[in-house]
Specification:
The complex is a heterodimer.
Chain A lengths: L7 H16 L21 H40 L4 E9 L3 E9 L7 H20 L5 H23 L8 H26 L7 H33 L4 H8 L1 H16 L9 H12 L16
Antiparallel strand pairs in A: 1-2
Chain B lengths: L2 H17 L3 H9 L10 H5 L3 H13 L1 H10 L3 E4 L5 E5 L9 H6 L1 E2 L2 E4 L3 E3 L4 E2 L3 E3 L3 E3 L4 E7 L3 E3 L4 E8 L2 E4 L4 E8 L2 E4 L4 E12 L18 E2 L7 E5 L2 E4 L3 E3 L4 E2 L2 E4 L3 E3 L4 E2 L3 E3 L3 E3 L4 E2 L3 E3 L3 E3 L4 E2 L3 E3 L2 E4 L4 E2 L6 E5 L1 E4 L3 E15 L12
Parallel strand pairs in B: 2-4, 3-6, 4-7, 5-8, 6-9, 7-9, 8-10, 9-11, 10-12, 11-13, 12-14, 13-15, 14-15, 16-20, 18-21, 19-22, 20-23, 21-24, 22-25, 23-26, 24-27, 25-28, 26-29, 27-30, 28-31, 29-32, 30-33, 31-34, 32-35, 33-35, 34-35
Antiparallel strand pairs in B: 1-2, 15-35, 17-18
Classes of the chains: A mainly alpha, B alpha/beta.
């Protein structure tokens, strides 16, 4: 250590560093961690820049491979369409975007069976089932009960619409699946942007940020073709009467819930907040120091 | 595979894949591994003396007999704890307290206990706890890990405490001291110019010399016009003695306000104004010379109090607090709290109760008070 009289600034710098180390030492040489409730995270400009760059790079990467993913979805949907015996066929449509790029979207050519009295009453049965189930749920499941009631109300409106104007519904299976597939493509592309705003800014390591991003993107990439092919099968056999229900309950909201589910899981992962440079260096010192070899005698608690 | 089986398999696969992301949430709802509240040792959080009391319990269990014996027979004692930590119980005060090796290294790794008064030389590090049954006086530029004294404590200039300090009497810290962690005194604390601190607690905490801000003491505050709620621009709601003001608010000099004030924007209270209630401000608040607030002052961002301001209740800010010369927070027999991210204090201020500067606080030296002292 330099002498204070000869090197006052160097002395002060070294002393400050040593004091910082000592302030976080317990009486037995261990590291005193701050209480989790006392930790705070400060958003610095470099965090914002890093999060923005990462989000833009990953979203840009998705745009580059989007048409390849569409090609994959075409084959997946064609395979499962054959397996489940859904009539019709798959084709690929290309939408020009500017002069140099186009968006490829798999299209399912398929029609729905006509609305019959039996199918209409089936819808009534579904709405009634949802309503009854919502009242049978225990009180701790109130949120689910309200969701079921909302779904029942939606199906009741659908029943009314198809009873009053049976031929006025403007959508078909082909258009529905195509729009949902396009929405899925863009939603997956937005995942890094959403995470950039809500996850990358926190103190998670690069590996964890990449892990949650790829988990969500890969999961949705595999889910979207299967999900909307399942929708197509149901609408084909049950009629267009069920399209609003599937769209509003098991369409985009389900994909958003998938994002939220992964996000909340990832937020529970341990961050780096309590592993700042000072703490890390402290731990190295502890690891290198010889143990005193006795049980704590309780002179001081472990947090301050 | 039959068509029905294929369809069932397809739907089962789709449902499974759709539900898979919810598995961690479902598992957590069943196991509830992270549902318990954070463990908080209530005594540790509520009582600023917690570490000192724990250390005293430790002494009572392990070394009370040695202390009593040293006091009775006048002979010092040495030994080691179960964990190997060396200790010294000094019967009498004097320079022979430290060994030649400790004096040479200017550092002691021993637990130092004194059965009476204790005087420590300057420019030494005391890396285990120091306890004096009587008074404790330290030389300049010492570093203490932790200090417990039953008598008054006097720290030399530029001394540092690393973890905690508690005295059952008064504490006087010399100029330029750095008081990290918790510092408490049963009687009073007086800090010298340029001291840094984190968490202080005493019936009276004096920052610098008491007469530094004596010219403005808030006695004549509120001698001007009394303002009714309707006189305040942007007033949106008045009820239960509380007035809510939308946007920024500027109160004229020497105005008297006889109700609680909540300001959504910035607040400026003019020189000599008086509020016979509490003030809450979501953005920055600035108090002119000699402003008196009978209740609490709460700020969503920064608070700047001019010279001679007084508050009867707590002063709390999410951001920084700057106290001008001669400010007083709380009163004798009415301890309260000043809590902020950073606290900058001009000489002559007094706080009764607790000061908690989460990221550190500082008492300005006399030559630094040009701006803060006359805000």
């Amino acid at each position: 250590m330099p002498d204070r009289r000869d090197y006052p600034r160097a002395y002060d710098r070294v002393l400050r560093w040593q004091l910082e180390q000592l302030r976080r030492r317990g009486w037995a040489g261990g590291l005193i961690s701050p209480h989790r409730a006392m930790l705070t995270l400060r958003l610095r400009p470099r965090h914002i820049v890093a999060a923005s760059l990462m989000a833009l790079l990953l979203s840009g990467g998705w745009v580059l491979i989007m048409n390849r993913v569409s090609g994959l979805w075409l084959h997946v949907m064609e395979f499962w369409r054959g397996v489940i015996g859904l009539p019709g066929y798959m084709t690929m449509v290309h939408y020009p975007v500017g002069d140099y790029w186009h968006l490829a979207v798999p299209r399912l050519i398929c029609g729905a069976l006509p609305l019959t009295t039996e199918r209409w009453w089936l819808g009534v049965g579904l709405a009634a089932l949802l309503l009854v189930a919502s009242f049978l749920l225990p009180r701790r499941h109130v949120p689910i009960a309200y969701m079921l009631r909302a779904a029942a109300v939606l199906q009741i409106w659908s029943q009314y619409f198809f009873a009053a104007w049976p031929n006025a519904f403007p959508y078909d299976i082909t258009g529905y699946v195509e729009v949902m597939v396009i929405a899925g493509l863009f939603l997956i592309g937005l995942v890094p942007i959403l995470l950039g705003l809500t996850y990358y800014v926190f103190d998670f390591s690069l590996v964890r940020r990449l892990a949650v991003t790829f988990l969500i993107m890969v999961h949705l990439t595999l889910l979207v073709p299967m999900l909307f092919l399942a929708h197509a099968w149901l609408i084909h056999h049950l009629g267009l009467l069920f399209m609003p229900f599937l769209f509003l309950i098991f369409g985009l909201p389900l994909e958003v819930l998938v994002f939220i589910a992964f996000y909340s899981w990832a937020m529970s992962w341990r961050g780096d907040l309590d592993r700042t440079a000072a703490w890390r260096s402290g731990r190295r010192l502890v690891a290198a120091a010889p143990e005193r070899g006795a049980a704590p005698t309780g002179k001081e608690d472990t947090h301050g | 595979m039959s068509p029905a089986l294929a369809i069932a398999f397809f739907f089962a696969l789709t449902v499974f894949w759709s539900l898979l992301p919810f598995l961690p949430a479902w598992a957590e709802s069943r196991r509830r591994r992270d549902a318990a509240p954070l463990r908080v040792v209530r005594r540790a959080e509520v009582d600023v003396r917690f570490f000192a009391l724990r250390f005293r319990e430790f002494l009572d269990q392990h070394l009370a007999g040695e202390l009593a014996a040293a006091k009775a027979d006048g002979r010092s004692r040495e030994g080691r704890l179960e964990d190997g930590t060396a200790w010294l119980v000094a019967a009498a005060d004097g320079p022979a307290l430290l060994t030649a090796e400790e004096s040479g290294e200017r550092a002691s790794q021993r637990l130092l206990l004194a059965a009476g008064d204790l005087t420590l030389p300057g420019e030494h590090s005391f890396l285990q706890e120091v306890h004096a049954v009587g008074a404790l006086a330290g030389g300049p530029r010492n570093i203490y890990r932790a200090v417990l004294a039953d008598g008054p404590v006097a720290l030399g200039d530029e001394s540092t405490t690393l973890r905690w300090l508690h005295t059952e009497d008064a504490l006087a810290a010399g100029a330029g001291c750095a008081l990290y962690g918790r510092v408490s005194a049963a009687a009073s604390i007086r800090l010298g110019a340029g001291c840094r601190f984190e968490r202080l607690h005493a019936p009276a905490i004096a920052f610098g010399e008491a007469d530094a801000g004596a010219e403005a003491n808030g006695d004549g505050a509120g001698g001007g016009r009394e303002l009714a709620p309707r006189d305040l621009p942007g007033q949106v709601d008045f009820g239960a003695g509380r007035c809510l003001v939308e946007g920024d608010l500027e109160i004229e000099d020497e105005a008297l306000i006889d109700f609680d004030l909540v300001v959504v924007g910035r607040l400026r209270l003019g020189r000599g104004a008086r509020v016979n209630g509490s003030v809450k401000c979501r953005k920055d608040a600035e108090l002119g010379h000699g402003v008196v607030i009978a209740g609490s002052l709460v700020g969503g961002r920064h608070l700047r109090l001019g010279a001679g301001c007084r508050t009867g209740g707590p002063v709390l800010a999410e951001g920084d607090v700057v106290l001008g010369a001669g400010c007083r927070v709380g009163g004798a027999g009415r301890p309260t709290t000043l809590s902020a991210r950073r606290v900058t204090v001009s000489p002559g201020c007094t706080v009764h109760g607790t000061v908690w500067a989460h990221e550190g606080g500082r008492l300005l030296a006399a030559d630094e008070t040009g701006e803060e002292g006359h805000a």
